[in-house]
Task: structure prediction
Amino acid sequence: MDENRLNILNESNRILSKLQVLAAFFGDEIIYKVYVRSQVIHQLFENNTELDIYKLEMFHLQFTATVIELLKKIKKSNEKNVVLLFDEIQVNEDMVARLEASSYSENDYRLEKQRQSLKVNNSLRKLYEVLSHDSSEYPFAKNINSFSARFASGFYPTVPADILAKLTQYEPKEVYTNAHAIIQRKLMGLLCKYDFKSEFYSGLKSGSIIIEVFRIVEPDIYYIFYPSRNLFLLCDAVEIQDINNSIALDRPDTVVQELKNRNDQLQSTVAVTKTYLPDEVRRLLADHYKKISDINFLQNMSNFDAQANILKAMLNTDMM
Result:
């Protein structure tokens, strides 16, 4: 075999191998079609010695090599974008890890609600005894105010300040007062009637003001505990339900959940970004495939000149 012919065929095989790798990377049908058709063209020249082998060389120089360079440029640009996506994913994962390590979980909140309910019930029972005996003894359970300090920021919805102001208003003549607490007389009577059995219902906050809402379950009676003032007041059940209904739809997801959702979206974007092929390149490849599929393409090699120039122009732009 003529040495020049052999060298051109060997170089053609190397070029086609590069195109095959890129076709596998992008997984795009039009690139596979171009590769397969280019392989057929190579076989035509390899099996027919009467064909001008320099036309195969010109075919690759004019188009195939430029396509490969263009696809490599797109691949490199895509991979840079994927790196940026992975960087954001890692930053989000680090933030989630820090937040989860420093914050309380939903399970922690559920467990501590039960403990807070027990503390408040025992404290109110003790307050009843203190008031009954006109004692100066401190009635509250240890660390009764720590519950809101721990969970308000992550689990209490924010409400307008005027709502909390309304819930904490009272008439002095309607409350029992001593050095340690203020409690509505009617509320104390109801607590005695129902054996001081209530449960934590919700927390509410506005700025630095925090209150806890409790519920005597059976008759559906609500009262508030204002920890910073040790204040206990009845509140209207309908009003509490209205507050909860108004904030339920607007309450945002936790920061952790938002970050996890964002990472799910980024992971979905990675695969698409990695193999993204611009529409203009796909259209040009489709046009090229149509031309090289023409049985008379060998007689029309000059038609590739304009197309090759377009591809080379793409290589010199910042579109990728």
Remarks:
- The longest strand covers residues 199-206.
- The longest helix spans residues 53-102.
- Residues 106-262 form one domain.
- Residues 248-253 have pLDDT under 50 and may be disordered.
